[in-house]
Amino acid sequence: MDGTLSEWIIALSRAPEQRAEAAKQLANAKQSVKPAILALVRAAGDRDDSTRMWAAEALETAGAPDPGAVPALIQFLEPSAAQADGESAYWAARILRRLGPAASAATPALTAAVKNSPYLAVREEAVAALGRIGPAAREASETLSQAAQSGPPRLARLAMIALESIRGMAA
Questions:
Q1: Which residues contact 122 (CB under 8 A, 6 or more apart)?
Q2: Phi-psi region of 66 (alpha: psi -120 to 50; beta: other; left: phi over 0)
Q3: Is the model's pLDDT at 70 over the cut of 70?
Q4: What are the C-alpha distances in Å from 9 to residues 4, 14, 23, 62, 71?
């Protein structure tokens, strides 16, 4: 599939074989795929395994989007039938983490993900994102304290690190 970045983004919403090929092209692109991040987060939750795999591959190296993408990324954190397996929510939290303090508007949604997501990986990424947001995520402190005290070991450790970052004590 030869094409431009915008053509690949459009192809991510077509038939399964076109979505998979577009995600593969984006994963192998020599140019920045930052404009495709939102489409790739959506594709990471695709029902087609090949599309999901290639979308995740592209997102691994996509970097951080423009901070203007925060509202759209927040929507992926909200549970829905279309994202029933949590992959899109996982990637949304991971991308928000890359934005650091610029993602502070996502604090309530990330906090809700820590409390309510049935997926441990989503909760872990949400905790890590809150830590990267730092002091601007202070409203998440109670939820992070609960996770630090009663969560699974890795989640508890990440929550302690996030709390240190929010309190301004991170190294």
A1: 77, 86, 89, 90, 93, 113
A2: beta
A3: yes
A4: 9, 10, 8, 14, 19
pTM for the model stands at 0.93
Encoded amino acid at 100, one letter: G
DSSP 106: G
- Express each pLDDT in 91-125 by its tens digit: 999 999 999 999 999 999 999 999 999 999 999 99
Please tell me the total number of residues recorded for the chain in this structure: 171
Burial label for 136, CB within 10 Å (0-12, 13-18, 19+), is: middle
Q: Which amino acid makes up residue 11?
A: A
